[in-house]
Design the sequence.
């Protein structure tokens, strides 16, 4: 898959921008705040219906404008071109079109553009709390099978309903509370069991790639593992009944996929607490590379978006990452210079929202 | 800038309507102030008139105009043995348009949604149970929406109705008529397979 052209209107610091991209490696050079990351963030928005920097859509609209427009021409593996457009208004719903046809639900856009994003924030995948790793696996799941998006949104909604019900019970588990809890528990059990299974299956696919990618980036064999630690054993329906008393007292659901953890270890030692900064950074890169490899093995070819990742890497790791990148269209932003060891096919410079192509 | 008290009051009242946020409330309020007085008063009169004439049916909780019971409950030709349970009165209008259903209705006036403070006591479930007990109902068709809250409502009703020995059915969900299998999303297609219909029993 290739992103051929990108048009932006009132997106972040851009009034309008029209950029054409070629295949291979494009390095986008620009100082801080000039707008280089905004370019790849916009492409990422179309792929994931949201900013990979975790910013609300509202913040993506240029100050003083009523709506932002992102339009991309993409070429799929078979040479077919598609025009994808999103309009993000300050008031009202986003409008999304594929080939000038309105897409009813934004989630139908998932899977049309596929990207693999690397960002300096990825370090928090290793150092941060379990919620970030759950988000990583669930995002990857949606990237692999877009239909799993509904599992995730259903889980969120069911949990909100069940927690509201728990709180309304006022700390007591009486017959009435049990009666109504049955209803939401059966829904939570169905979605929860399915989501855990989907995560486990995906993690099984990721595992060999993860070990290989780490060894490559860190340039040594270290047996990196990602293990799924579930908050329940066996059938979720039974586990929910067992935890009811505690749940009612606390007013939250204490078992379910929203409480599961993915434990990362390097040579048998927890990466989160015992890994060095360098090991943690390599692990985070390996997690991104591994998911990318899984998606590629399934027959897709994501565009690689590398947002300012080289500033944080020592020259050895930077070179190893460049070597580990699959052969695909790659857009790489850097603050100062083309990283050593990189052989870019194209170089662009971004200066206060204007873009010039150097080669 | 703040608005004069009466304008602000109008905006606040409009903002309490479903689907109308603060911005839309402001827009509607200014529109109402701009149009001829007669037109605005017609709207006010329509609201007053409807509120005075329309009430909820004492039997099924559908909207009822000019009587304690709604026109469907009063109609002797409607089958009393089959009861179709819906979330809102609008759903009755939709089902009536099909002209496929000749039974009576029961409106729950909502769906089971603890986030919105709607539980067993807020829904017309007790009334449904007394009707099932008193009216010789043979089948209850649960026609709540095929979303999370609608499904939760359906399983809640099942828990109440099953012990009463009445037949309970759920409307099918699946493919739209005139649709294409190829374009159906997995969830819908999965449901359609689950709720498939036997065409021939076979001999095994």
Sequence:
């Amino acid at each position: 898959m290739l992103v051929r052209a990108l048009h932006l209107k009132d997106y972040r610091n851009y009034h309008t921008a029209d950029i054409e991209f070629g295949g291979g490696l494009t390095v986008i050079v620009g100082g801080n705040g000039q707008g280089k990351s905004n370019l790849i963030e916009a492409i990422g928005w179309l792929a994931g219906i949201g900013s990979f920097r975790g910013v609300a859509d509202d913040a993506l609209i240029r100050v003083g404008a009523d709506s932002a427009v992102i339009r991309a021409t993409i070429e799929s593996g078979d040479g077919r071109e598609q025009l994808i457009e999103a309009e993000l208004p300050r008031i009202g719903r986003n409008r999304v079109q594929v080939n000038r046809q309105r897409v009813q639900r934004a989630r139908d856009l998932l899977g049309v553009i596929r990207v693999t994003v690397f960002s300096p924030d990825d370090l928090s995948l290793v150092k941060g709390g379990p919620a970030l790793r759950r988000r990583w696996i669930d995002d990857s799941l949606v990237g692999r099978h877009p239909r799993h998006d509904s599992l995730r949104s259903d889980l969120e909604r069911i949990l909100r309903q069940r927690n509201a019900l728990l709180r309304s019970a006022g700390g007591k588990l009486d017959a009435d509370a049990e009666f109504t809890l049955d209803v939401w528990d059966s829904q939570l059990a169905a979605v929860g069991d399915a989501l855990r299974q989907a995560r486990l299956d995906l993690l099984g696919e990721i595992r060999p790639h993860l070990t290989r990618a780490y060894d490559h980036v860190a340039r040594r064999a270290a047996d990196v593992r990602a293990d799924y630690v579930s908050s329940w054993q066996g059938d979720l329906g039974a586990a929910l009944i067992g935890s009811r008393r505690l749940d009612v007292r606390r007013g939250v659901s204490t078992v379910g996929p929203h409480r599961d953890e993915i434990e990362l270890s390097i040579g048998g030692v927890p990466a989160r607490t015992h890994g060095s900064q360098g090991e943690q950074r390599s692990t985070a890169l390996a997690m991104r590379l591994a998911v990318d490899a899984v998606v590629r093995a399934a027959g897709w070819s994501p565009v690689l978006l590398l947002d300012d990742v080289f500033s944080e890497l020592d020259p050895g790791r930077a070179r190893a990452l460049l070597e580990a990148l699959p052969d695909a269209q790659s857009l790489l932003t850097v603050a100062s210079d083309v990283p050593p060891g990189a052989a870019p096919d194209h170089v662009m410079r971004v200066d206060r929202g204007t873009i010039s192509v150097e080669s | 800038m703040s608005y004069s008290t009466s304008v602000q009051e109008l905006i606040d009242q409009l903002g309490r309507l479903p689907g109308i946020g603060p911005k839309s409330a402001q827009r509607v309020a200014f529109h109402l102030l701009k149009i001829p007085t007669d037109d605005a008063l017609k709207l006010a009169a329509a609201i007053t008139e409807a509120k005075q004439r329309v009430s909820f049916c004492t039997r099924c909780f559908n909207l009822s105009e000019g009587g304690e019971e709604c026109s469907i409950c009063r109609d002797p030709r409607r089958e009393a043995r089959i009861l179709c349970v819906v979330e809102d009165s609008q759903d009755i209008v939709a089902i009536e348009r099909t002209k496929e259903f000749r039974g009576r209705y029961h409106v729950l006036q909502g769906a089971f949604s603890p986030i919105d403070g709607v539980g067993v006591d807020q829904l017309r479930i007790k009334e449904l149970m007394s009707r099932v007990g008193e009216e010789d109902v043979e089948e209850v068709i649960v026609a709540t929406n095929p979303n999370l809250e609608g499904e939760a409502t359906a399983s809640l009703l099942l828990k109440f109705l099953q012990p009463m020995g009445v037949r309970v059915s759920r409307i099918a969900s699946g493919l739209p008529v005139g649709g294409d299998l190829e374009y159906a999303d997995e969830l819908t297609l999965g449901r359609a397979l689950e709720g498939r219909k036997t065409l021939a029993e076979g001999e095994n």
In short: Chain A touches chain B through 20 residues (CB under 8 Å). Chain A has two domains: 1-114+301-359, 121-298. The two ends of chain A are 22 Å apart (CA to CA).
